[in-house]
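Q: Two folds, back to back.
A: First:
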Amino acid sequence: MVQQKKIPTIAYFISYHGFGHATRAAAVMAAFKRLLPQVRFELFTNCPRPLFESAIGDDFGYFDLQADVGVVQRSPLEEDFEATGRKLSAWIPFDPRLIERAAQHLQRQGCQLVICEISPLGIAAARGAGVPSVLIENFTWDFIYEPYLEQVPGLEMYSYYLKNIFSQADLHIQTEPVCRPAESAIQVAPISRMPRTAPEETRTRLKVPLDAKMVVVSMGGVPDQFRFLGRLPAAIEPYIVIPSADHLYCGHERIILLPTHSEFFHPDLLLAADLLIGKAGYSTIAEVYHTGVPFGYVPRPQSPETPALERFIKDHLSAQAISAQEYTEGRWFAMLPDLLKMPRGRPTQKNGADAVARLLGERFFSLPTL
């Protein structure tokens, strides 16, 4: 009797804090698919399925659960740490029954590895199932909570609880730009989904002339009202493409509003654009790094992540800062002539997703070492 070869199966626990963690996970999964086409994924998250379908198709398991609390957002640029503390109080310590159900699912599906982006719940479930776990991060939640420990009741206790669980991962991978480098971690280049459509095709589908300037406005998947739409200048020269503009309307012929889950792959939009206006978040920075699009970035001065992100922006990207007020009030429209003069960066093919897939493939799935 011929013994059937076991299908490589990986569980992925994914934080739903904007779209950044989901898109980073999707990039790693797509890289795995290129190396091991037969690999199967079991996703533990409440991130919308289309985020993953656009990267790896629809052949994956989906276990709908809250894999993380992260930080409660008032808007793409404002966090609410008091609300975060209240949510953490209902989530920590982890419910043993939830851990047991997740661990049983891992065992039933034959998962050989658990990857956590950046969900500590996955590490706990992996330990319950006797499966190795991998933490992938450029920050962990205890780092983000640190400046607010004295202001928010209970936050120090929750931070310590999560820090302890993060330390139990069997393998630790950090992806540039890293907020707090760890000596025990393996560092890789920025992880991003890669473009797959020629700029000319994307512009044709958008009905943007090939010789026109095109600007994309993106806030990383956290809902935004794009209030600047109510303060548009009389004349707009470039075409302005705005993803995740659900339920909004603008009658201007040069403003193109797209739903959150549109037919347009976000990295393709950036590759086709002459400029990106957006929040300086990890996934956006990684996509700028890989497409070379000039970046008018909106920093978040209060975020502990900002210093590391801004250092990376200044060292590696063609970019200029736009204040939150300039963004919200639409004053960046007057800045467009100068912003559009920024040179395009050189796209890089060095994607941390490929390094992660190769590393884990060699370590856990018997891929030959290069």
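A: Second:
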Amino acid sequence: MRIALLDDDPKENENLRTLIDAYAAAHNYDIRCETFTSGKALLGRERFDLYFLDYVMDEMDGVAVGRALNEKFSGAITVCYLTGIEAAASEIINAEIGAVGFLTKPVKTELLYQKLDRFYSAAFGGRLQFKKEGHALETVFVQEILYAEAADKRTRVHFRRGEETYHHSFSEMERILSAYPMFLRIHRSYIINLLHVKSYDARNVMMQNGDVLPLKVRNFAATYRSFVFKEIND
């Protein structure tokens, strides 16, 4: 797994890399880190499996970098921000970056390793195989799914890149996706990925691709906030 570390303080980068190197050695994982002190330098590189981005930087802040990465790689990125401020988390979410983790600086070793456990599992275990026409199988990365929609006896899955219809009943798709905590059924015909919610009100949820879906579950706001902000204090 390739990890990019972005902080305009080189010492912070090296401290984080030391901790990650120790984690990789302890688990016998192939993890390679590259450090960056400039968002522009990072944006000039190929996609990494995981990004640790400092929220506050002078030249180009973490939100701006995350948004640019999100656009460059069509949302297929995994970002952990180095901040513990709930207000910062709100700004990141509203920027449509889909961050999946937050850590307070200075980073605590135990919390960092918990995050790495999750990210490593997601990067190399977060793949599903869906059935297509003619019994063909298509491999799908869990993090790329925006939402699933009932389509007669099949299920239509929406991604940033478009949509695909698979030979799974909606109830079967719900069972498959229920193994991942980011998925929530919000209507009899829709299951959404909470990481890709752009906005919501009492009746609808807007996903990051602009699609507006009907909302028919109680206490959605509390469920959504709990899911997003639990990363701060885990």
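Q: And?
A: The domain at 127-233 is CATH 2.40.50.1020 (OB fold (Dihydrolipoamide Acetyltransferase, E2P)).
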